């Protein structure tokens, strides 16, 4: 089948021929006809099989008729990253050269004013990341009630817990009568449940089995039981022994991207970095340099793993194995695209055993190793060593933070242990002393309770007299009352003596055994 058999418009066919395309890919053959017919689509296919053109071509055909109004786009494409959104915009510009359709790109890192101007002119095609789109809506700069077509690219990532709330909010702003299309290379079962909320009787198109990697990619694994420094040394030795035209090196964290970039720069490799904390201009400039061949190695986070179409990427290295097994499929999918040969190598540490098993299960493959293949005992042995090392590091950090022992503590610890016979004698003596103290305390409590009752009666009578005297006195400016009463009020401002009995007022009764006072010697 050729593109001419898909009933495309003349303008679209002319753009396809000028781009050098003749035969559609399997996902394009299956997705374009129902998309032109206006049906909802759930498309799942391997990376590098032309999923972007599967929705760009039918959208251009359908949007030829009609005209956009100010701040009311006719179609909306959502992408998880700025780079993927920019790549989709380039595809529309390439295949829509014969159309007079306006394209607006709303991504972070770009001035709001420029985006406002495009929205005011009216956008036939709006490509955006969810966060920036909601920013424009909250500012009152865009209305989504005129959207006829909604496309969510990399739907599995867009529907995970990071974006699901934004997607729900955006879909609530769209008209209920619309066409919706989801495309992705992976679609776990738990994510497919969410699609039922957004798709109406969709046409499910699945090219080969889900989460499969292209057969053109040679996959290898390296078992690593060294620290980070040794791991970087092993990596440099490996790439020095290969003929590499260009390569993408994936790390799990932005911090690791920076460390590896600094190390490779120090060893005079042609290298650049790409991660989410970089400015948008820096990110685009780095990608352009990598595409142009000015940079040989690109150290990146998962920002570069989704949907980026960089031609002729020969090698992909997972310096860190991905946490999610689906991300492995997307990472190595940056090579071996459009039928080309590719190579992917991944470092596996003992701590990565669980993630590695998930990747092997998802891709249903038998791993091939560079060097000796590890066995279960290697993973157990190394994991035990890692746990012991972490405990030692924790103990050393505790020692650093603890204060040095005082002289008295050291003397206590240096004292020899007493004999069990001596300790038994001491316990019997302590029991006798404790019984004597208890009898004394009981006698003391009884005497103090009787004296306390007399004190409380005297205080009640004195309080009645003060109330009657205040009624007869002329009114004057209110004075701040002191919390002290009785004899303490007369001696306000003076410190009490340590041996003085604390005054207890009505309602403030404290048991006598809680306020032990020294027993006076009778002499």
> From the helix content, strand content and strand pairing, which structural class follows?
alpha/beta
Q: Distance between termini?
A: 121 Å
Major sheet strand order: 3-4-2-5-6-1-7
**Strands, count:** 13
| Share of residues in strands | 5-15%
- How many H/I helices? 18
Most strands sheet: 7 strands, parallel
What is the overall shape?
globular
Low-confidence stretches: 383-390, 403-418, 475-479, 489-493, 495-500
Helix content: 40-55%
Report the C-alpha radius of gyration, rounded.
Answer: 39 Å
Overall pLDDT confidence: 79
Q: What can you see in these coordinates?
A:
The longest helix has 53 residues. α2 runs parallel beside α3, α3 crosses α4 and α13 crosses α14. With 523 residues, the protein is α/β, with parallel strands linked by helices. About 8% of the residues have low confidence. The radius of gyration is 39 Å and the shape is globular. It contains 18 helices and 13 strands. A 7-stranded parallel β-sheet has the order 3-4-2-5-6-1-7. Strands 8-13-12-9-11-10 form a 6-stranded parallel β-sheet, sandwiched between helices.
Give a summary of the structure in a few sentences.
With 523 residues, this protein is of the alpha/beta class. It has helices at 10-19, 26-36, 51-62, 82-95, 112-121, 130-138, 155-158, 164-173, 189-198, 228-240, 254-266, 280-291, 325-332, 353-363, 376-401, 407-414, 420-472, 487-490; strands spanning 41-44, 75-78, 103-106, 125-128, 149-153, 179-184, 203-206, 217-223, 247-250, 271-274, 297-300, 315-318, 342-348. It has a seven-stranded parallel beta sheet with strand order 3-4-2-5-6-1-7.
